[in-house]
């Protein structure tokens, strides 16, 4: 027989709460929501900053998320020892998470700027933050049971549901709200402050009677200290960024712009050599850029070149070389970042370097995703180009690996005129032969015949990749290119009667083609959107 009197008896509520059990339950769930949002912001912040500093966003996301998930399991186990004193344990946990998570981006950036290495720091913060996040839910479960013991199964479901919703809000707030408005560093500091305030209010207000007077005093002092540290760091973050930029780029930083796409840095000029950095990587150096751009553009201009398309190249330097031919009728620049184009139009040193290419009436600019632009273009609504120049970062170190995929080259092939030529910057064949010859295999799979070549003359001390060059790992001494066409492989040479060049000669091209060919790796598979091969 069922004892209905026992079944209908009201559950025992924990005495001593300053609010009703129902209100206390909702307050705990609100804290679960905020903590989940803060935890995901910490994760995404580490992924975003690591991708910027180290490169290869897929690898960095995999490292951060996998280490964090593993550490969360450890944190859940360690939380068992704190459940007997859940209130004070949760208060200390949130303080540690606010301080470590809030300052993680600062420390990660500092390690890169002053020591040139950030991988160890990235793994450390992923592990520690994961442990702290993993310990939150068990302690919050103990606290919500302290408020009310009714419907334990329903409480667990509510706890996890609110946790997932909070993660959703945090995941959306970071890219659409925090990052655009506050930047990478201030976002973490503000998140840490929110974490500390919410955790402290829950423990010191709702569960204050679970604490001894001494514990309350220590928690109040610790909260004040953590908020003071985070507030001071927020006030000094601009000075910190300037000091870190000087450590990375030297004392010649003249322009620092955070566009919607990337961070753009200009150093030097007009009195010293100009350097252009995109997301921390040297893209243009006035000391040796002519070696790169002459080799990129002029071999492709041998043949019909009235209509030229430059993919990337927002700095205007590839267009500068194409415009040196009087027979060039139009140059279209398809650039993802309008901020780079604006800088190349207005900055005195950069406009002098590109010889005011954007003032030439033959130049037309299309800003946006070149992949989508080529894909949606319809015959009759777009030009057919004689020359297509792909002036993009190395495929193994950029988020834009889709621009080195077989599908993208197929789109370009549909826009090439009969006898048209495509030239691709494909990385260094000497130091990264697998990346270089994967681009070659991808072009061939898309129906092209290719002519490999390279250009020497690199003078800059920065690697063509995600890390700064050091004495132990100097920058590659050559750039690699692939000249491609439908039908027969295009001959390598210079246009008869073309403009006088500073460094490139037909003899140098022949020698560099032979040097690139000696690095060939046969049997590589092409890269596609579904299966990107770069970095394997």
TrEMBL record:
The chain crosses the membrane at residues 26-54, 60-79, 91-115, 121-144, 156-179, 185-206, 218-237. Its main location: membrane. InterPro entries: MFS_trans_sf, PABS, PABS_CS, SAM-dependent_MTases_sf, Spermi_synthase. It is a multi-pass membrane protein. S-methyl-5'-thioadenosine binds at residues 262, 335, 369-370. Pathway: Amine and polyamine biosynthesis; spermidine biosynthesis; spermidine from putrescine: step 1/1. The active site is at 391 (proton acceptor). It is found in: Cell membrane. Gene3D superfamilies: Vaccinia Virus protein VP39. It catalyses: S-adenosyl 3-(methylsulfanyl)propylamine + putrescine = S-methyl-5'-thioadenosine + spermidine + H(+). It is an enzyme of class 2 (transferase). Residues 233-474 form the PABS domain. Keywords: Cell membrane, Membrane, Polyamine biosynthesis, Spermidine biosynthesis, Transferase, Transmembrane, Transmembrane helix. Signal peptide: none annotated. Spermidine binds at residue 315. Its EC number is 2.5.1.16. CDD domains: AdoMet_MTases. It holds the Pfam family Spermine_synth. Catalyzes the irreversible transfer of a propylamine group from the amino donor S-adenosylmethioninamine (decarboxy-AdoMet) to putrescine (1,4-diaminobutane) to yield spermidine. Belongs to the spermidine/spermine synthase family. HAMAP family: Spermidine_synth. Homodimer or homotetramer. This is Polyamine aminopropyltransferase.
């Amino acid at each position: 027989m069922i004892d209905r009197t026992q079944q209908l008896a009201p559950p025992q509520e924990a005495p001593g709460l300053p609010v009703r059990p129902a209100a206390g339950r909702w307050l705990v769930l609100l804290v679960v929501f905020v903590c989940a949002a803060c935890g995901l912001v910490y994760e995404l912040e580490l992924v975003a900053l690591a991708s910027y500093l180290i490169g290869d966003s897929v690898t960095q996301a995999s490292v951060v998320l996998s280490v964090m998930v593993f550490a969360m399991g450890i944190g859940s186990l360690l939380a068992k020892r704190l459940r007997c004193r859940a209130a004070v344990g949760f208060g200390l946990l949130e303080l540690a998470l606010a301080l470590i998570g809030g300052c993680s981006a600062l420390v990660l950036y500092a390690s890169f700027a002053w020591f040139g290495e950030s991988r160890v720091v990235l793994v450390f913060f992923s592990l520690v933050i994961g442990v702290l996040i993993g310990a939150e839910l068990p302690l919050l479960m103990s606290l919500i049971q302290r408020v009310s013991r009714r419907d334990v199964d329903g409480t667990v479901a509510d706890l996890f549901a609110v946790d997932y919703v909070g993660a959703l809000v945090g995941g959306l707030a970071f890219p659409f709200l925090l990052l655009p408005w506050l930047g990478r560093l201030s976002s973490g500091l503000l998140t840490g402050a929110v974490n500390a305030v919410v955790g402290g209010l829950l423990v010191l207000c709702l569960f204050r009677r679970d604490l001894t007077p001494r514990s309350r005093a220590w928690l109040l002092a610790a909260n004040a200290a953590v908020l003071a540290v985070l507030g001071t760091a927020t006030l000094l973050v601009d000075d910190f960024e300037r000091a870190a930029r000087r450590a990375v780029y030297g004392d010649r930083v003249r322009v620092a712009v955070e566009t919607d796409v990337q961070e753009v840095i200009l150093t030097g000029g007009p009195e010293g050599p100009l350097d252009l950095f995109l997301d921390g990587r040297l893209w243009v150096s006035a000391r040796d850029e002519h070696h790169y751009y002459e080799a990129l553009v002029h071999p492709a201009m041998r043949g019909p070149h009235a209509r030229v398309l430059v993919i990337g190249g927002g700095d205007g330097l590839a267009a500068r070389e194409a415009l040196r031919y009087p027979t060039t009728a139009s140059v279209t620049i398809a650039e993802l970042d309008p901020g780079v184009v604006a800088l190349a139009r207005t900055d005195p040193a950069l406009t002098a370097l590109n010889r005011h290419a954007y003032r030439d009436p033959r130049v037309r600019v299309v800003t946006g995703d070149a992949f989508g632009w080529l894909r949606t273009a319809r015959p009759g609504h777009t030009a057919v180009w004689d020359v297509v120049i792909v002036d993009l970062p190395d495929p193994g170190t950029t988020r834009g690996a889709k621009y080195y995929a077989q599908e993208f080259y197929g789109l370009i092939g549909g826009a090439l005129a009969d006898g048209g030529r495509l030239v691709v910057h494909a990385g260094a064949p000497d130091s990264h032969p697998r990346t270089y010859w994967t681009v070659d295999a991808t072009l061939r799979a898309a129906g092209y015949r290719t002519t490999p070549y390279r250009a020497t003359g690199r003078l800059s001390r920065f690697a063509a990749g995600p890390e700064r060059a050091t004495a132990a790992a100097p920058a590659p001494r050559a750039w690699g290119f692939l000249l491609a066409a439908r039908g027969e492989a295009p001959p390598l040479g210079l246009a008869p009667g073309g403009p006088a060049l500073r460094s490139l000669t037909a003899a140098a091209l022949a020698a560099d083609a032979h040097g690139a060919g000696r690095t060939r790796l046969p049997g590589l598979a092409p890269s596609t959107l579904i299966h990107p091969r770069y970095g394997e």
